[in-house]
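User: Predict the complex with NAP.
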Amino acid sequence: MRRLRSDFAPSTAPGHAVITGGSSGIGLALARRLTSAGWDLTILARDPTRLAAANSELMQLRRNPEQRIVSRSVDVADDEAVAEVVAAAIAMLGPPALVVASAGMVPPGRFDELPLEAFQRAMAVNYFGTLHLVRAVLPAMQQRGSGRIVMIASGVALVAFYGYTAYASSKFAVRGLAEALRSELAPDGIGVSIVYPPDTDTPMLSAELTSRPAITSRLAGGARILSADAVAAAILRGIARRRFAITPGWEMAGLGRFHSLVGPVLHRWWFDPLIARARRTGEDRRDGRWLGAARSFAKRYIARWGALP
Ligand SMILES: NC(=O)c1ccc[n+]([C@@H]2O[C@H](COP(=O)([O-])OP(=O)(O)OC[C@H]3O[C@@H](n4cnc5c(N)ncnc54)[C@H](OP(=O)(O)O)[C@@H]3O)[C@@H](O)[C@H]2O)c1
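Assistant: Here is the predicted structure with NAP placed in the model:
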């Protein structure tokens, strides 16, 4: 039986890449690597100042002076605005060969402490933001007949846990979208990938560490913190190999393959006892600030391990 796959490998075919969240963290790390490899880029995010800084950094990394770097301010939760900026980018740089939905947000917290708006915003940015991008690029990619769409989910889209009711459900929705879309688009020559990063050293994680529950930090601490560049490198390796599921780091690689077996074991024998102990001692009512500070201190060193091949 013929395998469903697109014929796209980024290492061999520089073209136009569209990256939401391209002004920071994982999206910016990807943008840096693609620019150095000769790609034209459209980066999308909200804050014009950060976009301008990313744009001028990327301009310095160009392999040749003809490469074009376009940055536009847009909120991915706004479907009409996304359609508009993507149409303008395609008119300028052509149909994208690579599309990465990296824009995201995380509202950590216990379910009973989070306002309804946190759940709505997580879905609006993480799930609908991804969906809006795909709808905006798809007609041009179908016409082109090749390319790859990459959705950045999270390890919590494999095994969800304490403190991530809003975040994990939005990322599980992304996973459902990716899986169903993959089988629809493969006959068109368009590949779909989903990425399950562990905690990654980015501004998002630094902000999150100051507010997430202490228990969440202890549970997430089972996997190393990777650098954004290590995650970007893993993503590009995964794309070159036409992988559907891309799992940076060995912990995510294990979870990616065995999450349905490992998940219940983790919950029963590790998460539940730890949470029960924390309930008894009152730790579940404290936030993760101290643990977060300790992890922030350690992660600068630990992130180096993630950068190893
Ligand atoms: N860092 C981690 O530990 C980790 C782990 C697993 C998964 N992830 C996922 O990886 C992706 C990238 O996260 P990151 O860690 O690289 O975060 P980051 O450094 O904070 O970057 C997030 C990017 O998304 C943009 N963005 C956020 N909300 C947006 C919106 N509504 N519309 C348009 N752009 C928006 C941000 O720019 P503006 O704020 O200017 O809009 C920024 O460019 C996210 O989907 C995240 O859920 C991260």
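The domain at 16-304 is CATH 3.40.50.720 (Rossmann fold).
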